[in-house]
Predict the structure.
Amino acid sequence: MQHLKKNYPKQKNSLTLFLKKFDTQKIIGIHNLVEDASAKAWEEVNCLECANCCKAMTPTFNKKDVKRISAFLGMTENELYDKWLMTDADNGDIVNQKQPCQFLDKKTNFCSIYEVRPDDCATFPHFKRKPFNDFNHIHEQNIQYCPATLKMVNHLKNTIDAGFDW
């Protein structure tokens, strides 16, 4: 987390500009490069040391998530929604009412519903969504919250800058 606080402000502009290039330019084999950058990032980051995604962000809950989580907790879907969820007025997404996430154990950074967590949490930080260039906006957002995303984008940028002519 310290790495993120220290490095994100210095790197924000260059990484955002780098990611925006994918809006108009495609690199053959980008998914292999993302795989490699992702593997390097995960060698350096332990999510349980951070949990910033659970502390500062909210997942989007789909209807299957609400059904699965409410059953796991022995609640009705309406009870789950009324107790912890809301509909985002800007985009209609179902999200947490507050942060940090109600399911986060703040002492251990464990998720109390990990085995039934929302799909959005299970796929976070969304490195492997395809096509990569369709999710630049997500990576741009996540670099400010997630040390793994910051490291992955840095590794990807370093690899591409060293071998490709934009």
User: Anything to note?
Assistant: The helical segments are 2-20, 30-44, 52-56, 63-73, 77-84, 119-123, 136-142, 147-163. The longest strand covers residues 85-87. The radius of gyration is 17 Å. Strands lie at 85-87, 94-96.
